[in-house]
């Protein structure tokens, strides 16, 4: 399983409603994402509308195609399209990983940090 990161741009005048919609995503949409291979899926939203998504999946393109093939995704995307500056949510720009603390610590023979921040 690998992690993918992407960005989208939410219209600044729609931020409050975008946040509200994501506070209670339809249960069938949640299941469609899960069943399509989306795991540990997180969205972060900045005040200017920059949306950053992080997801764990074996293949982002395949996971996107699988969720796109569901009926509920079509309905969700149609409702969410007006929130994006591109007119849809399909303009994801993926980001390349440039630093991984745990990987570099492991390569140096060190232990990764503990969840509470204490040294091992």
TrEMBL record:
Pfam families given for it?
Answer: rhaM
**Gene Ontology terms for molecular function:** racemase and epimerase activity, acting on carbohydrates and derivatives
What is a biological process (GO) this protein takes part in?
A: rhamnose catabolic process
Under the heading InterPro entries, the entry gives: Dimeric_a/b-barrel, Rham/fucose_mutarotase
Per the record, the domain of life is Bacteria
Name assigned to this protein = L-rhamnose mutarotase
């Amino acid at each position: 399983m690998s992690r993918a990161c992407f960005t989208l741009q939410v219209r600044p005048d729609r931020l409050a409603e975008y946040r509200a919609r994501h506070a209670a995503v339809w249960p069938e949409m949640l299941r469609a994402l899960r069943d399509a291979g989306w795991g540990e899926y997180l969205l972060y939203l900045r005040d200017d509308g920059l949306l950053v998504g992080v997801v764990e999946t074996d293949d982002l393109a395949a996971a996107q195609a699988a969720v796109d093939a569901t009926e509920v995704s079509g309905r969700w995307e149609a409702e969410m399209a007006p929130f994006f500056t591109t007119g849809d949510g399909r303009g994801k720009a993926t980001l390349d990983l440039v630093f991984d603390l745990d990987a570099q610590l492991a390569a140096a023979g060190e232990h990764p940090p503990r969840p509470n921040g204490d040294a091992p």
